[in-house]
Amino acid sequence: MDVNNKESYEKGIDVLKKLTDEHGISMIQSYKDISPEFTEMMISFGFGTVYTTGSLELKQRTMLTMASLVSQGAFEQLPFHIRAAINLGISPQEIVEVILHCAAYAGFPKAASGMRIARDLFQELGVELPGESS
Amino acid sequence: MDVNNKESYEKGIDVLKKLTDEHGISMIQSYKDISPEFTEMMISFGFGTVYTTGSLELKQRTMLTMASLVSQGAFEQLPFHIRAAINLGISPQEIVEVILHCAAYAGFPKAASGMRIARDLFQELGVELPGESS
Amino acid sequence: MDVNNKESYEKGIDVLKKLTDEHGISMIQSYKDISPEFTEMMISFGFGTVYTTGSLELKQRTMLTMASLVSQGAFEQLPFHIRAAINLGISPQEIVEVILHCAAYAGFPKAASGMRIARDLFQELGVELPGESS
Amino acid sequence: MDVNNKESYEKGIDVLKKLTDEHGISMIQSYKDISPEFTEMMISFGFGTVYTTGSLELKQRTMLTMASLVSQGAFEQLPFHIRAAINLGISPQEIVEVILHCAAYAGFPKAASGMRIARDLFQELGVELPGESS
Amino acid sequence: MDVNNKESYEKGIDVLKKLTDEHGISMIQSYKDISPEFTEMMISFGFGTVYTTGSLELKQRTMLTMASLVSQGAFEQLPFHIRAAINLGISPQEIVEVILHCAAYAGFPKAASGMRIARDLFQELGVELPGESS
Amino acid sequence: MDVNNKESYEKGIDVLKKLTDEHGISMIQSYKDISPEFTEMMISFGFGTVYTTGSLELKQRTMLTMASLVSQGAFEQLPFHIRAAINLGISPQEIVEVILHCAAYAGFPKAASGMRIARDLFQELGVELPGESS
Q1: F40: containing domain
Q2: Across residues C68-96, what is the average pLDDT?
Q3: How confident is the model at residue B5 (pLDDT cuts 50, 70, 90)?
Q4: How far is Cα D47 from Cα B19, in angstroms, rounded to an integer?
Q5: How far apart are CA E27 and CA F35, in angstroms?
Q6: Which one, of C103, C72, C87, lies nearest residue C15 by Cα?
Q7: Do both C84 and C41 map to the same domain?
Q8: How high is the pLDDT of residue D5?
Q9: What are the b/e assignments for C77-92, b being 16+ CB within 10 Å?
Q10: Residue A52: which residues within 8 A CB-CB, separation 6 or more?
């Protein structure tokens, strides 16, 4: 890793510590076997630079991320960011509302996939599903 | 559920009864645990309003739906609508032609995924594959 | 042009004669200056092979095409196919219903762009807008 | 318009009054000439139902909307929602940060188109560009 | 199969023999049970016509194909083309660089899915991962 | 601009000097009025880091970029990269072949938009169109 980006890399790790736990950081770093450069770019540029530039809070950025992933159908990374949302104190109800908002803007099929992924993850984590208490 | 939309909801259930069976309706309603609002919107707005507005027939709408799903790569919902197509009397050959048409407009890779999903479903349902008799 | 595909090319021209007029065929052929191969493939493969394989009618194919274009946001080719729809006897109301169907499956923004394009074209062609008489 | 949805329609108009001005509402209603049904659905379902379901604030929803539009490349509707953002008190700097966030998640080209559209609109509205004072 | 396209079909098989092995050709031909027409079009048009038109080399075309698949999120066909890349002598490191390039142009989430698929395939094939030796 | 990224920024400017001319660099830098951070990221991360990591040549990267842009329908940035292709010595014929390759992988409509944009640019630049001499 280029020493030039060491500061960004450390800022990225700091952001990741707020979004995820040791397991999540290991998951991001596990891309090192296929591409150390890609791993470094995700951490230094993605989390270290984009997430720390400007005034938006981490909660806002994580909500925007979920909307972006659902709207472009990039579902493989959605569980990581739903976990991050929970870690940041975004409620399961709010997570569901973000996905529901995308139903109007990106169509029901993508929202339905997002809902299914959120349900699977909530169940895995033992989080009460937003619709169960209503 | 808002009484205001009760009529649309019932129209949606009526449409669903033509598209699917009890199992399919249960599948749609199973989203209630994660989001009763999303479930209500799919049924009232999606099936109850969009599907009942205007003059297009259910067969036409289901063919358009399959083309939309393949063209945007939203494959998770494709089996539900291929099942609906079969229930409405659209032949397996016609279903395959819809997906093949998308090869020209959305590229071979998305059409190939659609073909694989159709084959898996036809085999699960015991429907003779369109290419087997030719 | 490869003599091998001459038959497909002529079938493509025959399909185009049903979808469009001399002006439309010239428009398709105008890509020859940038790529004779691409032009030949559109006509021989797209219109000559895909459009003539199987049992779907031209009206059905044109409705599927409009749904595919709106759902993937490929709007530049939409006017050509809306014109084709009109030439085939699909009513302006039905064209609007195809786009509206996509609102549920691909979101309101893409449907709104489709509606704006349909309106612009209907006005250019002097076709009464579906909402004006209601 | 179906009396059944009158309440949702009025809720949609109320939401629109917070997002936009008379000119913006007229713009939404201008789709009536091409499709009164589509116009009614955008207002009743989109703004009247989706925007009023759950606990997210209008500011949050508008930020999610901008992220969804940029991420799926549906730029034609972006100016309407950037105007809404300004009306709701979201700063030009925050609007730019939402688009910048999408650079990481949906790539630089879509973010660049979003930036160009925001700049054009800010200049049209006489809003100082976020980069000019820095 | 139309004798008219026999030459293109044979050219397609010749291209496939350079891209893949018997197993890969069988995989492409396995679509015959669901749609002999689609299978024929993939081979005659896709591999027989598009891949043999013009001056680009097979290596270049395969790199473009990988970039196209990652950029549109059409991941199901990616393993076939990564295998083709390896068969053509494109190094695992170069394959990873193509996917990494897409991170900037189509966003990190699609690139991350591409990286995961490449890793899974390299491990299945016993290819040393590019990051392991560094 | 963060001094930390000064080296990457300068590497990005060096890459840009090979891809474009003073006018092109000014165009990239013109985003500074809307977002100096975005401009810095495009140059430092996009051109300075992604383009300089690994062994792919600039010609290869520019071909991949064109395929990515066409395949995701991000056409606004396509002229910049077609100009870059010409500056790097990629022939108009090869540019057209890249777009044509995308017809098979992302559908004819996106390829047709790419062809139209290439033609407009070639005409603006006084470059002989590839189809005119054939």
Answers
A1: 1-53
A2: 98
A3: confident
A4: 28
A5: 49
A6: C87
A7: no
A8: 78
A9: bbebbbbbbbbbebeb
A10: A11, A15
Band of the pLDDT at D72, cuts 50, 70, 90? very high
Could you give the CA distance from residue D9 to residue D22 in angstroms, rounded to a whole number?
16
- Which residues make Cβ contacts (< 8 Å) with residue C20, sequence separation at least 6? C27, C28, C80, C83, C84, C87
Which B residues in the span 3-22 are in contact with F, Cβ-Cβ below 8 Å? Answer: none
Q: Tell me if E91 is assigned to some domain.
A: yes
- pLDDT under 50 in chain A at which residues? 1, 3
- Residue B48 has which token pair? 């109850």
Sole residue written with tokens 């010239």: C26
Count of domains forming chain A: 2
In this structure, are F70 and F86 located in the same domain?
yes
Question: Is D19 in the same domain as D74?
Answer: no
Q: How many CB atoms lie within 10 A of CB F87?
A: 16
Among B73, B100, B113, the residue with its CB nearest the CB of E35 is: B100
Q: Contact partners of F by the rule of 3+ C-beta pairs under 8 A?
A: A, B, C, D, E
Count interface pairs B-E at CB distance under 8 A: 62
D24 inside domain: yes
Question: What are B70-109's pLDDT values in tens digits?
Answer: 999 999 999 999 999 999 999 999 999 999 999 999 999 9
Largest CA distance in chain A: 53
Give the minimum alpha-carbon distance from A99 to chain C in angstroms, rounded to a whole number. Answer: 13
| Residue of chain E nearest A65, judged by CA positions | E109
Residues A106 and A44 placed together within one structural domain of the fold: no
| This model's pTM is above 0.80 | yes
Task: Suggest the residue from A15, A28, A32, A35 to mutate for an interface test with chain E (most E CBs closer than 10 A).
Answer: A35
CATH number at residue E69: 1.20.1290.10
Q: How far apart are CA B72 and CA B70, in angstroms?
A: 6
Cβ atoms of E77 and F43 within 8 Å: the answer is no
pLDDT in tens, A66-79: 999 999 999 999 99
Answer yes or no: is D134 within a domain. no
Shared domain check, B120 and B93: yes
Q: What is the pLDDT of residues E19-62, one digit of tens each?
A: 999 999 999 999 999 999 999 999 999 999 999 999 999 999 99
**How high is the pLDDT of residue B4?**
55
| Inside any domain, residue D133 | no
Measured between CB atoms, which of B50, B63, B72 is closest to C64? B63
